[in-house]
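Re: How this chain folds, sequence and tokenised backbone to follow
Notation: Tokens come from a learned vocabulary of local backbone shapes, not from coordinates.
Start of record: The labelled sequence and token lines come straight after this line.
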Amino acid sequence: MTSSSLIHPTGGPGRILHVTPESAGWDHVEFGVVEVNPGAPWSGMAADRETAIVPLSGEGRVVVGDGDMEVELSRESVFTQMASIVYLPPGTPYRIESEAGLQASVGSAPAEGRYPVRVFEPSEMRIEIRGGGQAYRQVVHSLSHPLPAERLILYEVYVPRGTWSGWPPHCHDGRDGSPYLEEVYYFRLDRPEGYAIHRNWRDDEDYDDAMVVTDGDVALVPKGYHTSVACPGSNMYFLNYLAGELQDDERRTPPCFMAEHTWIESDWTAGEWGLPVVTPDGSGAGS
């Protein structure tokens, strides 16, 4: 059975992915991916929502308002470059244009307009290496505290092939002492045959939703603990848009981690097998 939290892209040009609060069954996050071709700009304006635009590949520009501001966007690939992010407060019209082709994500969340139009440059984004062992990844804090926004939180995560992300499993669904945040995962794999597995679940109810994602797919996290793993043959990138009850400086609040799995953080290689594990003479690593 296909998961209702798994969304595949449609053919371009124009909007090839779209998640609304209504389609997701939640209250805050809207997310989309647009393909902008020459002579076919993409326009928008969210009356009561803040918006963040992330270039994914190609070249183009964001024209703000009636041309009051133009922001050039360029990114060869999510696998080779960081990129500037355009932040727009509620009620700000914009137009995305390109003469060479541009793919970008456009996501939003409810806001009151406390922050102005801004371009967040890669030099402002904190880079963090998390985990170890088989759960080793790079996290780019593309729009997280202390970078200012009302509700939006954005991360870009780089996961080596065969490696887990989001380990120990964590949740932010307002339960187990966690904050309430809705989350979108937009996945890219660096080989066309590549895939990943994403799982959402809770142990205290009948909820376990595991899905196979391929390049360009979106996985929603409506609730529960969650984690992802890349197949051994392809490296994985994903872009997260989160929003919920946390506002402004509260956006620094961490999620809740599944206690029975946090032991590994003290030593990511503890108990790790070497091969062979068993041998006829009892000299294997498991002996």
